[in-house]
Amino acid sequence: MSTAYIETSVPSYYVARPSANLLQAARQAITRSWWDGGCSGLDLYTSTETTEEAGRGDREMAEARLQLLKDIPRLAINRRVGLLAARLIARGLIPAVAGSDAIHISVASVHGLDFLVTWNFRHIANPFIRTRLGEEVEAFGVRLPVICTPEELVEDHGDH
Predict the structure, then answer these.
(1) What is the CATH number of the domain that holds 46?
(2) What is the pTM of this model?
(3) Is the distance from CB of 148 to CB of 117 less than 8 angstroms?
(4) Contact 66, 124 (CB under 8 A)
(5) What does residue 148 show for φ and ψ, rounded to 5 degrees?
(6) Which of 60, 84, 144, 150 lies at a 20 to 30 A Cα distance from 137?
(7) For residues 66 and 82, what is the distance between their CA atoms, to the nearest angstrom?
(8) DSSP state, 25?
(9) Residues 6+ apart with CB under 8 A from 135
(10) Residue 143 lies in a domain
(11) For 18-68, how does the pLDDT look when each residue is reduced to its tens digit (9 = 90+)?
(12) In the chain, how many domains are there?
């Protein structure tokens, strides 16, 4: 069975109030469809970094995000995760103010997951840094998971 790390943007899109922005509304619908459809059969994992982020903000939305994440196993944020996150920040791939994003990438990489599922295009699913991110992670001695959105994981059962 393939494994996937879920970072904060996924439960955030799932529980968000319907958006008037067409792109946001589409991402919300895709996220709900993917999640409710069994997450492509992937074994899901997350970390306390995700649950801490998910617990911030509007109380009702935070509770809904945490409820969605409650049964997903947490992977350890250990010394190796911290060292890799620090490396990604030191190399300028992730800004220090986005340290949580470096932790998400590091947890998924150090624990050897197959996918990192995100809607965060700024610092995680960013095509301009993806190659360098992979090189830094490999130089650290682990493998960068496939970084993708729920949309990329939705199985198309239509005609091709």
Answers:
(1) 3.40.50.1010
(2) 0.94
(3) yes
(4) no
(5) -155, 170
(6) 150
(7) 24
(8) H
(9) none
(10) yes
(11) 999 999 999 999 999 999 999 999 999 999 999 999 999 999 999 999 999
(12) 1
